[in-house]
Amino acid sequence: MKSLIQKKFNELFGNDGEFFKSAGRINLIGEHTDYNGGYVFPGAIDKCILAEIALNGSEKVKVFSIDCDEYVEFGLNEEDKPDQSWACYIFGVCRETIKRGGKVAGFNAVFAGNVPLGAGLSSSAALESTFAYAINELNGNGIDLFELAKIGQSTEHNYCGVKCGIMDQFASCFGKAGCLIRLNCKTLEYKYFPFDPEAAGYKLVLIDSCVKHELASSAYNKRRESCENAAAAIRKNHPEVEFLSDAKRLWLEEVRQEISQEDFLRAEYVIGEVQRVLDVCDALERNDYETAGEMMYQTHFGMSHLYEVSCEELDFLNKLARKMDVSGSRVMGGGFGGCTINLVKEELYQPFIDAAVEQFTARFGHAPKVYPVVISDGACRA
Ligand code: GLA
Q1: How far is the C-alpha of 333 from the C-alpha of 317, rounded, in Å?
Q2: Do residues 281 and 275 make contact, with C-beta atoms less than 8 angstroms apart?
Q3: Cα–Cα 20 to 30 A to 156, which of 28, 81, 100, 250?
Q4: What is the pLDDT of residues 231-278, one digit of tens each?
């Protein structure tokens, strides 16, 4: 990937730049909890966006995407927003840096990536974090890593129409090889947990349904609204509830008649999920992978029946995992397609993958993709 980028950069701009990269992520548990002020438990993976970048002495950004085989140029003012959706991520990062008082001089860039798109592995956060990190370094802005993650998140909110939480950009920026990170999304306190399932005889594997739902971002925003409705109703009785994650299950019960059935189910899922993250962390500290895996099944149930962000293909993969005695399995990321994440005993690893590929293909007419997971570093110079 690096030599391809280098060649294209030289061809387009006639010189060399500096390399930066940032990673996609997995999340062991804690889904749709981030924008509710709850816990998440992600880690960066060995799939990344890699970019070569150099300041160009102009007020323009000139970028080539190798994967889209497309060149785009844009200015740095609000009205210069490009038409191409991939370029909007980079434009958004520039604008959000400027809004925070950072300097953004014009630059040339060529980038490529191997984070599968639409698989729930946060390719967009990897793109945002790569550029947020690079722009910060090249302009000497001294913005801290948390704020760089927030630059990516605000890019999604203000330039891409997704009211996401902080998990993806956080993992992409803060990832550390061999570690998952438990983040409290309310206080932003975080803790690295060394994560080595293989030492206990387990492996993680992602099975990508290759299903992508067109309306995923509006459905995502709608889930968020439901949670805010539920939190607002609970807050009337319990003013200390700032986010839905502050609420107790009983407090949700008190407002059952005041909110829609849909909002109730969404909130029920979130309150359960926040607790499951803590339970999984406790279980892992005891090396109890079976309990952690069981929690993953509970999350899948909630995401499928209460939060309703699963789909037929993902439910099929989840059921198959259960049938084969896989220790844990669930839909990962925002949902509406993408991957299941599976915690599998070593001896079941290959048989499970073979069965998943064979049976999924027979049922849906296309093969799923299989990604082994390697927990890696986040944003850095490359
Ligand atoms: C997407 C969002 C994250 C998070 C997850 C669900 O990946 O970008 O902020 O909400 O969905 O956990």
Answers
A1: 15
A2: no
A3: 28
A4: 999 999 999 999 999 999 999 999 999 999 999 999 999 999 999 999
